[in-house]
Amino acid sequence: MSAPVAKSLTYKELPPLSLMPTPLLLRSYLITSILSSPRLLKLSMPLLNIIANSPSRFLNPDKNPAIGFLVRKIIYEHFVAGDGEAAVMKTVAQMKQVGFQGVILGYAKEYAADEGEVGNEELDVRRWKEGYEKTMDMIGPGDFMAVKLSGAGASTLCALTNKQQPPPQMWTEMLSLCHAAKAKDIRVWIDAEQQDLQPTIDEWTLLLMREFNRNGQAFMYNTFQAYLKVTPRNILKYLKIAKDEGWTMGIKLVRGAYIATERRDLIHDTIEETHEAYNGIVEDLLRQHYPGLDEKKRYPEVALMLASHNETSIKNAYAIQKSLIEQGKPTIKLEYGQLQGMADEISCGLLQLCQQSGKEAAEKQNEMEDKLRPRAFKCLAWGSTQECLQFLLRRVKENGDAVSRTGAWVMGFRSEIWRRMKASFGAD
Ligand SMILES: Cc1cc2nc3c(=O)[nH]c(=O)nc-3n(C[C@H](O)[C@H](O)[C@H](O)COP(=O)(O)OP(=O)(O)OC[C@H]3O[C@@H](n4cnc5c(N)ncnc54)[C@H](O)[C@@H]3O)c2cc1C
Ligand SMILES: *[C@@H]1O[C@H](CO)[C@@H](O)[C@H](O)[C@H]1NC(C)=O
């Protein structure tokens, strides 16, 4: 009997997980199995909820060693890069060793209004800024830093909600963070959040793109959520501004993560419509004929980060871009991002493509082969166990919501473990 090869992407020969170090493979298998079991999830979700939302010191994993150990071993280490420089840099190095083009690193701490020093604006902003300064110290040229604007404290949150200008102190720090990142050749993306904040986040990010995305380079990226009905029009609006003003638009495209709490009428009625919107926007951007833009005039410069775990979307995008490049047609810069602890099979499939075409490129010195090499990034979060709890809660929930998908990932891990066992016995 031959080893069941993981349900794999069609464009490669080796099973995708073959690049993953064995200890990581085993841990991922274990955790993903737990998270894709409705019964185990039913037991652990309420517990995690209590730990995440209790003000009690006793339940704070940073203060209670027993709880800290449990949360750490079970989910933290799977989804989070680490709590400080040593641990995070080890994870980053591991990702690059596996073959990722780079990482996207975000600071997981979120602003919570009940944090104690309510209204101490200066302290909030300073903590927020220091978190991102540390983030930048842990990554290097070519990497991304992921920034959550709402994390900057009460006055920022208030300005976002009320569609105002950014608070001066916070904005000064934001600009200085961006300048520092640019000096280190680190790109910055701004996360998309709930709809009561997002229109203002878009406007503030426009200010940043306008300032930093000159000379044909996308340095700042804004996030667009394809599940919103308004998104195609919204992208068009910014494309027009970018074109008129002559800067490059950085687009990170996601489906959207706030469906549980969002006003439902803003979101596509069915998930199929969201899929259609997502894939449609990708195709229009790649082909450079975005509906509403005059094709005969010069097209705006765009760079696209496809932030998704959906295999169909990723394969489609790659296929479209490949055919455009092979036909010598113009297209845009395309990169891929997936979250740590999720979609390892898909990430690794992309990496294999990288390696395959990388080799060919070295042999043929062919510029086209290099262009065809997909650039895959792993998106990591860092922070203490306590700081990461809200982030972890969302990841656990997301995995539980998509049991059919995580189930497929479990099968993938299982067959790769099986393949390795057989190979090691065969070698004896
Ligand atoms: C690197 C990275 C960065 C991200 N950054 C952000 C961010 O800044 N902001 C943000 O909001 N999200 C962000 N996300 C999360 C993202 O929005 C998705 O929640 C997540 O990635 C799942 O979508 P998918 O494309 O991976 O795959 P799929 O599994 O194909 O997406 C399906 C998901 O779409 C959702 N959905 C969308 N529309 C509908 C609908 N009409 N009906 C029912 N369900 C619907 C469901 O929750 C479902 O689980 C990020 C994801 C990645 C990988
Ligand atoms: C991925 O997207 C496609 C449409 O592009 C959809 O049919 C499929 O169900 C999605 N996969 C998952 C696992 O959500």
UniProtKB/TrEMBL annotation:
For this protein, the record's Gene3D superfamilies field holds: 3.20.20.220
Which species does this protein come from? Cadophora malorum
Instruction: Please provide the Gene Ontology terms (biological process) for this protein.
Output: L-proline catabolic process to L-glutamate
Q: What is its EC number?
A: 1.5.5.2
The yes or no answer to whether the keyword Flavoprotein is present is yes
Q: Which GO terms describe its molecular function?
A: FAD binding; proline dehydrogenase activity
Record keywords: FAD, Flavoprotein, Oxidoreductase, Proline metabolism
Role summary:
Converts proline to delta-1-pyrroline-5-carboxylate.
What protein is this chain from? Proline dehydrogenase
Q: Which reaction does it catalyse?
A: L-proline + a quinone = (S)-1-pyrroline-5-carboxylate + a quinol + H(+)
Taxonomy, superkingdom: Eukaryota
Q: Which family does it belong to?
A: Belongs to the proline oxidase family.
Read off the InterPro entries from this record. Answer: FAD-linked_oxidoreductase-like, Proline_DH_dom, Proline_oxidase
Per its UniProt record, the required cofactor names are: FAD
Residue ranges of every copy of the Proline dehydrogenase domain listed in the record: 88-406
Q: Which SUPFAM superfamilies match?
A: FAD-linked oxidoreductase
The GO cellular component terms are: mitochondrion
